[in-house]
Design brief:
- The protein is of the alpha/beta class.
- It is built from eight helices and five strands, in the order βαβααβααβααβα.
- A five-stranded parallel β-sheet has the order 2-3-1-4-5, with helices on both faces.
- The longest helix has 25 residues.
- The protein binds thymidine-5'-phosphate.
Amino acid sequence: MSLPRGKFITLEGTEGVGKTTNLTFIQEWLEQKNVPLIVTREPGGTPLAEELREMLLRKRDEPVDASAELLMVFAARAQHLNQVIRPALERGEWVLCDRFTDATYAYQGAGRGLSLEMIETLENLVQEELRPDLTIVLDIDVETGLARASDRAALDRFESEAVEFFHRVRGGYRTRVAQQPDRYRVIDAGQNLKAVQSDVAAVLEQLGL
Ligand code: TMP
């Protein structure tokens, strides 16, 4: 008898929402419940995909064409999906991924203004039927998030975008949530950390853990 497929959980949000802290919280929560788990991220998650990530995030003098950016995102995703995510799910392990295709709809779609149909075509091509089982969206006021992110190391190519870009990105996430409310849980990341984590825990409990 084959193992049941593991669950695929993704974490999303704009800059400075506290993704890293909450990812660790979710990881520890699941490990405590003895859920077999891998934790990974996009763009990235394999050596090749991490190289593509570096290429995507690095600031450069040459303007980056939005469709070239989109194709690099999906090139990284194809590698990550087929080398890491699908094999783990097939082994019955859960996959906790820091960002996935919702980020493409939000950043390349809403942010850069690329057609959602083009993104959907690539999504179907690269992922076939695979979609996350659950996506937690950490939501915060754009200005508050950017202020938090600017306290960190030097800004990358995305973080250096103008504030309007992040308003569009946040709007992009909200549209996705409104279109398929069952797959998403939105958490107010503007609360104090304890309150955010208590909301995250409530979401995980709903998974029957
Ligand atoms: P991170 O710093 O939150 O890990 O994400 C790296 C950046 O990559 C972030 O600014 C969002 C961007 N990104 C996209 O533009 N499209 C995507 O599909 C993904 C996964 C990330």
